[in-house]
Each structure stands twice: as C-alpha cells, then as structure tokens.
Amino acid sequence: MQTRTLGTTGPHTSALGLGCMGMSALYGDTDRAESIATIHAALDAGVTLLDTGDFYGMGHNELLINEALRTAPAAAREKALTSVKFGALRTVEGAFNGYDGRPQAVKNFAAYSLQRLGTDHIDVYRIARLDPDVPIEETVGAIAELVEAGHVRHIGLSEVGAETLRRAAAVAPVSDLQIEYSLLSRGIEAEVLPTARELGIGITAYGVLSRGLISGHFSRDRKLAANDFRSFSPRFQGENLDHNLGLVEALRKTAEQKGVSVAQTAIAWVLAQGEDIVPLIGARTRERLAEALGALDVTLDPADLAAIEQAVPAGAAAGDRYPAAAMADLDSER
Ligand SMILES: NC(=O)c1ccc[n+]([C@@H]2O[C@H](COP(=O)([O-])OP(=O)(O)OC[C@H]3O[C@@H](n4cnc5c(N)ncnc54)[C@H](OP(=O)(O)O)[C@@H]3O)[C@@H](O)[C@H]2O)c1
Fold first, then answer.
1. Which of 7, 55, 138, 244 can bridge 88 by disulfide, Cβ–Cβ 3.0-4.6 Å?
2. Probe ligand 1: pick from 13, 21, 327, max atoms within 8 Å of CB?
C-alpha cells in the first residue's frame, strides 16, 4: 500500500482512506455483513485510515467500526487509524439540527465516541462544521486538551475556509482539513488548498466520486430512496443530472483509452493533485472497494491530465454540491 502523511504534524496513513458513512446512512439500504467484510478487505489491502462521524446513523457507524476492528486480525487492528467527526446535532427523526462546538460538548462527544468505538483514543478528531456561535479557537482548544490527556492524537478540521484554518492553526497543530474535492468540486483550489499548504495542513478529500455521480456506475434510471442524499442533492436533479452525466461520458472516453474505469480515473485525478491529499473512498461493498483501490495503480501523465481537464473542465458541474440549507453551514463556501 502506498502511504502519505497528513500535514507536517499528522499521522502517516495509507494513500487512500476508507470513508464509512455510506455503511450507515445517506446512500440507501445498508448491509451490515458486507460493510464489515468491506472494512476487513480494506484493512487487509493495507488501508489504515477509517473515517467516520458520531452522527452517521447516530452512533451506528462507530459501533460498526468497533465490530469490524474487534473481529479483524490484531496486526490490522493495531495499524488502523480512526478519523472521527462530531458536533452535528440530530433529531429523533434523523434531521440535522445545528452544530455544537462548545468545549464541554466536545469532551462529551469524545467520551461517547470512545465508548462506541471501543478504543482508548481517536487518531484524528474534528468538528464536522464550524459552530457559528462558538469561536473556532474554543473548539480546537478543547480538542487540544483531549490531545494532552491522551484521548485524541491529532486535531482535524472539516469544511472550513482559509480564515478559520489560520485561526485554528494558531491555537494548536492541525493535521488535516477534510473537505470535498473532486473533478466536479474544485472550489478549494483558489484559496483553501494554498492556505492549507502554507500552514502545513494536509487534506482528506471526500466526495471524490461526487457521491457516485462520476463513478461511471450512476445512471438516470437509478431508483433512490427518499432519504438517499442523492434524491435531494442539486447535482442529481433534472437537467443538472443530464449535464453532469454528459461530463461522465466525456471522462469515460479518457478512461477507456487508458484501459481503466471511470471511478479509477476520478480517484487517480485527486491522488495526482498532491502528495498532501488523501482521498477517502466511500465504498460500501468489496467489489466497489477493489475497483477504488485499483486507482493506486493508475498513473496519469501530463497528457492524461490535460485530456481529463478537457473532458471535465473546472467549474463544469451543474448544481451546488449541497442543498441550499446545507450550503449555508459551509464555512468553506463563504
Ligand atoms: N467532512 C464532511 O463533511 C464529509 C461529508 C461527506 C462524506 N465525508 C466522508 O467521506 C467519505 C466518502 O464520501 P462519499 O461516500 O460521499 O464519497 P464518494 O466516494 O464520492 O461516493 C461514494 C459512493 O459512490 C458510489 N461508488 C460507485 N463506484 C464506487 C467505487 N468504485 N468506490 C467507491 N464508491 C463507489 C457508491 O455508491 P453506491 O454504493 O450506491 O454504488 C458510494 O456510496 C464518507 O464515507 C465520509 O467518511 C465527509
């Protein structure tokens, strides 16, 4: 397995991480046995970074990771790194209900996560979205205290903009910023990515397949449950979807010329944007995982990168990456 280091102070990790969110929520039906088998297959292949959030399935995802780690070979379990997001508040019905980054809430969230994960520390801990009512210095300061106490190893951030990155980094070392980055979501290139690089902060990129939209497997006929993120994501609606699937067909031509899949091309493109970027793969099955890991063997030369850029130019996507209410929660989009 190829490896990368998250920022100047972060952990050494596999070059691809496994994002476990879809195993508990947001992408329709889940299959517990296949989810655990997928995590085991990832560990077996040398993936060390497992990304989750305490609010993914409201604890479900952390308990799933707990079970997968408990039943994995000891050597794989010892190498595994947990990256956990907290702070999102939910209703009983599952709606998102704001964020809580107060120091006492941070410590409370961490106590519950450690219990659910069954571990004595969390490797990277981050608030999922900036709490607009709590200065980032206070939230990061609370995580720094958890680091000092040995409960957390590294401080991360999620979906924040350049100014918040600077303020957070002034409080304590930040290992990585988790943020959406893909051929369809290139917003970080203007300011956030250069700032992260200047500050020595790595990137864990999510949505590298744009939630499956640019995986090459998504089609207009795909039936989605009402609670599937994609049934209300702007990029998957009506004319936006037609336009975006047109981009996928252009990308498919480049992929076919290289003899690799569309998903592998899209993941390899993110890998090629810098050694400081670790893409998270949202595979929910062993089959999808195997395809995604194949991206590590894809080398994109300058001619390939130019062909990809021509197929999917920056800013070509139709539709925002989140519905309007969720866009408003993104400090990174201000
Ligand atoms: N910080 C944040 O705000 C934030 C937000 C979202 C996610 N995340 C993290 O990032 C991780 C990845 O995000 P994501 O799941 O949205 O990203 P993604 O990789 O863009 O999308 C994953 C979806 O793509 C489809 N897919 C098709 N072929 C695939 C392949 N070969 N490998 C993997 N997936 C394939 C799958 O859908 P089907 O199974 O339906 O085919 C899968 O559910 C999450 O698990 C989570 O840990 C963080």
1. 55
2. 21
